Amino acid sequence: MTQQLRAVSAVTGSAGQAFAALFRLLKLARPDRPIHPEGLGLAGVLTRTGNPAGPSGIDWLDSPGTDQVVARFSRSVGLPQALPDILGLALRVSPSGDAAAADAGPADVLFASTGWGMPGRFLLVPRLDVAGATMTTLMPYRGQRGPVLLGVRTRSLPPGSLASGEWVLGLHWASPGGPWRECGELRLHAGGNPADIPLRFDPLENQPPGAEAYGWTRRLRKPSYRAARRPAPPAVVRAKQPARPKNAPVTLQQSTTGTGRNTMSTVSLLFNASSADVWRVISDGWLYSGWVVGASRIRDVDAEWPQAGAQLHHSVGTWPLVIDDSTKVAAVEPGRSLELVARGWPMGEAKVEITLEDRGNQCRVTIAEDAIRGPGKLMPKFLRDPLISARNRETLRRLELMAIGGAGK
C-alpha cells in the first residue's frame, strides 16, 4: 500500500510540474491569464436545500442555507465562439453562518464542461455553449464519508447571451461512481454593465466548509496555479520599455496594428548598435542564414534586394533534412522597415515585419510575425505565438551581434 501511495504521489507530482511548465510557456503569449483569458463576471445566489435523504459528508452541502455568489464564466482555450471550447464556471461563495464556523472565509469552487455519466464526469468535453453542457469539479473533495464530486447543469437560460438575463443551474453531488443527487439551485446574472472581473479563484486554499482537497489533487494542480499567478516573465511587457542596458533580455510587446488587438507575435530589442549598422546587415540578403533562426543556407539573392518584389532563395532545416523555398519583400522603407513574406512549405507562409527605431548609437529593432497560409496557421494562436516569439528573440540576438561585429561592411 505504501508503495502504491508513493507511485501515485510521484505520478501526480510529475504531471503537476508538466502542467506548470505548459502554463509558463502560455504566459509568454498571455501574461495575465494563460488559460480562460476572457470571461464574463456574474453575481447571484446559491440556495442549498441540504441532503435529508442521505448526507454527502460535506457540512456545507448538507446544511440548508442561502449564499451570496460572485462568479466568472469563460472559455478555457479562448477559441472563437463558433468553435467548441472547454467551458469554465468559477464560483466564489460566501457561506452563511449556518454552514460554517464564524471565522470561515469565502469558498472557491471551479467547474469545467465534462460528461455527466461514468467515466465522462472525469473527462473534459469541449462545448459550443452552456445550453446542453454539464460541468463538474473534475476532481473530488474529501468529505467525512469519502470523496465527493460536485456538478452543475443548466435549468434555464436567458434569451440571447448570458449577459441578457438570469442563468439558473441545479447544484448536484455524487460519489465518484455513484448517482447524482441534487442539493441546491444557483441563480446568476451579469448585472447592468456586463464585463469581465479581475478576481482570481483558488479552490485549493479557499475550500467549502467541511471539504478538503486530497493530497494528489494538490500535487497535480498547485504548481499550475502558482505558475499562473506569478508575474509575467521579464521578456513579456505590455508597454514601451526604457533603454536596455547591455546584455539585458529581449522584451515582448503586444502588436495592436489596425485592430487594437494582439494580431501578431511581436518581440523588440534595444541594440547596442546604430540603425545604419543594423540596416547594413538586413539589406545584405546573403547574410540571412547568419541571423534568421531556421534558415540553414542562402542559395541565391535577387540583385534588387531588398527592394519590393525582390526575393532571396533559402533552405530551411538541418542537413540532410532541408527544404528549399524563398522569401519575398512585400514592402520596404530603407533604413527603417522591411515587410517580408517568408515561405517554408509544407509548413506554409508567414508575414514578417521588421522595424528599426534610431536611438543614436543604439537602435530598437522589432520583429512582428504570424502565419498567414498553410498548416502553421491551423495551430491555435495561443500555441504558435510562444514558439514564434522564442525563435525571434534568438533571431534578434544574432542580428545584434552581427551588427556590432560589422557584418555587411
Please provide a written account of the structure.
This is SRPBCC family protein. It comes from Arthrobacter sedimenti. With 409 residues, the protein is α+β, with helices and mostly antiparallel strands. The protein folds into two domains: 2-229, Beta Barrel (Catalase HpII,  Chain A, domain 1), CATH 2.40.180.10; 251-404, START domain (Alpha-D-Glucose-1,6-Bisphosphate, Chain A, domain 4, 2-Layer Sandwich). It is 21% helix and 35% strand. It has seven helices and 18 strands. It has an eight-stranded antiparallel β-barrel with strand order 1-2-3-4-5-7-8-9. It has an eight-stranded antiparallel beta sheet with strand order 11-12-18-17-16-15-14-13. A hairpin with a 2-residue loop joins strand 14 and strand 15. The longest helix has 25 residues, at 2-26. The termini are far apart. The model is unreliable at 237-244 and 246-262 (pLDDT under 50).
Can you tag this structure with a few keywords?
18 strands; START-like_dom_sf; 8-stranded antiparallel β-sheet; 21% helix; elongated; Catalase_sf; alpha+beta; Catalase HpII,  Chain A, domain 1; 409 residues
Gist?
This protein is an alpha+beta fold.
Q: How large is the share of residues in beta strands?
A: 25-35%
At the fourth CATH level, what is the homologous superfamily of the largest domain? Catalase core domain
Please state the structural category: alpha+beta
What is the rounded Rg? 27 Å
Number of helices: 7
Widest sheet, order of strands: 1-2-3-4-5-7-8-9
Q: How many domains make up the coordinates?
A: 2
Helix content range of the residues, please? 10-25%
Q: Biggest β-sheet, characterized?
A: 8 strands, antiparallel, barrel
Give the strand tally: 18
Name the helix and strand elements from N-terminus to C-terminus, one letter apiece: HEHEEEEEEEEEHEEHHEEEEEEHH
The CATH class label of the largest domain is Mainly Beta
Question: How far from one another are the termini?
Answer: 71 Å
The mean pLDDT is 83
Per CATH, the architecture of the largest domain is Beta Barrel
Unreliable stretches = 237-244, 246-262
Shape category = elongated
Do you know the CATH topology of the largest domain? Catalase HpII,  Chain A, domain 1
